Amino acid sequence: MKISKLPEPETEENPGERIEIELLLEALYRVHGLEFRNYAYPFVRRRILHRISAERLSTISGLQEKIFHDSGVVARLVADLSINVTEMFRNPDFFQAVRTKIIPKIRDYPEIRIWHAGCSSGEEVFSMAILLYEAGIYHKTRLYATDICEQALQKARQGIIPLERMKIYTKNYHKAGGICAFSEYYTVRNKTVFFSSELKNNVIFAQHNLATDHSFNKFHIIICRNVIIYFNKVLQERVYHLFHNSLSVPGFLGLGEKEGLQYSGIACYYHEVAKEQKIYVKLAGPGTHNL
User: Fold this and answer.
1) Are 185 and 244 in the same domain?
2) Could you tell me which of 53, 85, 130, 264 has the fewest CB atoms within 10 Å of its CB?
3) In this structure, are 73 and 96 located in the same domain?
4) Are residue 135 and residue 237 in the same domain, yes or no?
5) Would residue 226 be called left, alpha or beta, if left means φ above 0 and alpha means ψ between -120 and 50 degrees?
6) Residue 205: which region, alpha, beta or left (left: phi > 0; alpha: psi -120 to 50)?
7) 176 and 264 both lie in a single domain
8) For the domain that residue 109 is a member of, what is the CATH number?
9) Taking every annotated instance into account, which residue ranges of this chain make up the domain CheR-type methyltransferase (predicted)?
């Protein structure tokens, strides 16, 4: 089957592409309640063009038609628009900083609540669970792992990973200060890694859309790494305020290496705990709650 050429990059000769994309995103929101209208345009465009090719379509409007009539296409497009790049102990120095700069501050709390926002398939959540276990405080911690993509959450709930990834994950673990043999935390069957059920006991996986949903608890730590860079300025500000209203005082916020609070409207209420690792502590501000 011959496939028509995909849309060219937006130019003066092709001014309607952005309109088509905006209409498609509007359809996603109005028909399915899925909010991607404030995601960064270059990111959204790349993912939509990929989905057009994968579905063997020729136009953005053709994909929009599928949005109204084909739930399978909707699910696949949502998976494309979700940020699912992750790995265990990604950027090991971040987890090392959590070990040395955050854990000592919260170790004596009677209970600890942590929110992993945009958890994807769960690798960072299990990384945190291992870190907390080795610190001796996992038993009193509840981890809330959320993502917009139900497909990613299904993978996360299973706690399974291809064996081929474990070489780099083991290396990351030791760079992050791991104190055990990493293989103690999983079993292998048919080239698939199954994490210990103990690491899942205190984790709650749930669907949550940072673009539309509200705060659902008060947390001592919020981790949201390499997600906000895909949002436009309006949505970034919304998410920063959402996290601000969800943190205790003091409460710790961990962001991705290309993200930061310096240009947000709440920056004055935070202090940098680890500058290079983008870890902040909330000190004060509107909507604060001492826990």
Assistant:
1) yes
2) 85
3) no
4) yes
5) left
6) beta
7) yes
8) 3.40.50.150
9) 20-261
List the pLDDT tens digit at each of the 291 positions of the chain: 444 444 445 444 466 899 999 999 999 999 998 999 999 999 999 999 999 999 999 999 999 999 999 999 999 999 899 877 789 999 999 999 999 999 999 999 999 999 999 999 999 999 999 999 999 999 999 999 999 998 899 999 999 999 999 999 999 999 999 999 999 999 999 999 999 999 999 999 999 999 999 999 999 999 999 999 999 999 999 999 999 999 999 999 999 999 999 989 999 999 999 999 999 999 976 544 443
Domain co-membership, 71 together with 102: no
Mark whether 68 and 211 lie in a shared domain: no
Instruction: Specify if 165 maps to a domain.
Output: yes
| Same domain membership, residue 188 and residue 225 | yes
Please give the structure tokens belonging to residue 2. Answer: 């011959």
Task: Decide if 12 is inside a domain.
Answer: no
- Please check whether residue 124 lies inside any domain of the structure: yes
pTM exceeds 0.90 for this model: no
Domain that holds residue 58: 17-81
